[in-house]
UniProtKB/TrEMBL annotation:
Belongs to the bacterial solute-binding protein 9 family. One of its GO terms (biological process) is metal ion transport. Residues 125-145 are annotated as: Disordered. InterPro entries: Bact_metal-bind_prot9, ZnuA-like. Gene3D superfamilies: Nitrogenase molybdenum iron protein domain. Residues 1-31 form the signal peptide. It comes from the Bacteria. GO terms for molecular function: metal ion binding. This is Zinc ABC transporter substrate-binding protein. PANTHER family: HIGH-AFFINITY ZINC UPTAKE SYSTEM PROTEIN ZNUA, HIGH-AFFINITY ZINC UPTAKE SYSTEM PROTEIN ZNUA-RELATED. Keywords: Signal, Transport.
Amino acid sequence: MILILMNFKVFPLLASLAIALALGGCTSADEADGTSVKVAAAFYPLEFAVSSVAGDAVDITPLTTPGVEAHDVELTPRQVAAVVNSDLVVYLSGFQPAVDAAVKEADPAKVVDVAQFADLKSLDEEAHAEHAADDGAEADHAGHDHGDIDPHFWLDPLRLAAVTEAIAERLAVIDPDQATTFASNAKSARSELSDLDSEFTAGLTTCARRELFTSHSAFGYLAMRYDLEQVAVVGIAPDVEPSGARIAEVQNLAREHGATTIFFETAASDAVAKSIARDLGLRTAVLDPIESVTDQSTGEDYPAIMRANLAAIQTANDCG
């Protein structure tokens, strides 16, 4: 099996590992029967990438249940078993502590940490990149800790394409008979994601405003790619309570830039975003970080949700 993971919370890990070893016998039997490659995918965008490359040629076990905040996921004993016994584990180190803990018990040769292919940036690096074209403009650092690494690379379609290609290469090593298919599917995925990138570039070229007022710092890669500026109420962790001073600062920035909309997410509390919007007489709207797909999502899969995000930004910023 190959495991694709992100960090997760540790919850009686030793007990879970004991159960995982007991459950491992089932996996071994499956492999003996010649069934498909077993892949554990840490969260939805990685699951989407694996599926884009392999389709029905692999058996994917998702580690983040739809609707669960991906940052805070806890693994069931069966999911821990999937991490330990899969042919491949695909994950993002440092994002989900529970997944990180389980990966430590897996065979390193069967683990892919996509961080090495995603070109991750710190929030400071993102902020400076967003302001690079402005003459001495000061980046907004107040909503985060210096040095925090932003894990949300998949909100840049081209970064997701690079990760998808890396997954295809690893799957080809595990299942050489399918190598040509994996490579062809990765090429198609790259083309589709490049088309999506072109839609964003064209759709956001001419906008009355270029700021994104968001509930937390999930959209830095999107902002960097399309010359936008993210103004987040809080940093990487969406469940942090913002200070009164930070809320006041965001309100002042919203007034200064003529914002019309405060964005929130379906998987996290919308209370602060709605409070800020209410105080300023602004709208609220969903901007989906696509950590999972649920009935509340703005689309049925990654491309559909990304296009819904594009439409929401265009409406908020009066893009022609």
